[in-house]
Amino acid sequence: MNRKEIERLAGWYCKLNCWNWPKDLPGRPRGWDAMQSAPGVINPPPEIQLVTKYTITSPTMALIKELIGEKECSRYWWRDILNRSDKEFEEWWNKKVRSRRVMQQNTEQSSADFWECWKQWLLPVAHKIVEKDKLENPEYYNPKGDQNAIEKE
Q1: Which of 69, 50, 58 is CA-nearest to residue 6?
Q2: What is the DSSP string of 29-81?
Q3: Which of the chain's ends, N or C, has fewer CB atoms near its CB within 10 Å?
Q4: 128-149 burial, b if ≥16 CB within 10 A, otherwise e?
């Protein structure tokens, strides 16, 4: 894909992101200007097929982002909408990437801390709770393998 095609797709992405239909994008839906931007109901029932600007643009935007990447979509926004330089964009992008890495590392560390806590404290407590429950509700447990003894009515 050449630079001109990338710019065109990035432009479409940014215009659709602002609920504007690009003039050079075929398939403008009838009634676009009067159409609701997003559903007024969060998670409408599946039998109700709401047609909104969001339901029309989101698959197209997702495809564009997959084709050219988030960075190109953001670069166009910074340069053509915010009137910032490529240098300013690159500084912002690199800072964003670094922040994502730090968040990922923190998430991984939090997950590791959780499992360490689970092994050292929660797991022994869980075993004690199960052992106590076995004494109080023996009908729930089946040491002999009898399938009929597992279920409690």
Answers
A1: 69
A2: PTTGGGS-SS-SSSS--TT-----HHHHHHHHHHHHHHHH-HHHHHHHIIIII
A3: C
A4: eeeeeeeeeeeeeeeeeeeeee
Q: How many CB atoms are located within 10 Å of the residue 72 CB?
A: 19
Measured between alpha carbons, how far is 96 from 102 in angstroms, rounded to an integer?
Answer: 10
Asked if residue 29 lies in contact with residue 35, where contact means CB atoms within 8 angstroms, the answer is yes
Token digits for 80?
A: 């053509």
Residue 146 scores a pLDDT above 90: no
How far apart, in Å, do the first and last CA atoms of the chain sit?
Answer: 65
The C-alpha atoms of residue 107 and residue 58 are separated, in whole angstroms, by 28
Instruction: Report the pLDDT value the prediction gives residue 150, as an integer from 0 to 100.
Output: 46
pLDDT at 140: 65
CB distance 80 to 12 below 8 Å: no
Whether the model pTM is above 0.70? no
Question: What is the rounded CA–CA span in Å between residue 34 and residue 57?
Answer: 15
Please tell me the distance from the alpha carbon of residue 43 to that of residue 102, in angstroms, as a whole number.
Answer: 32
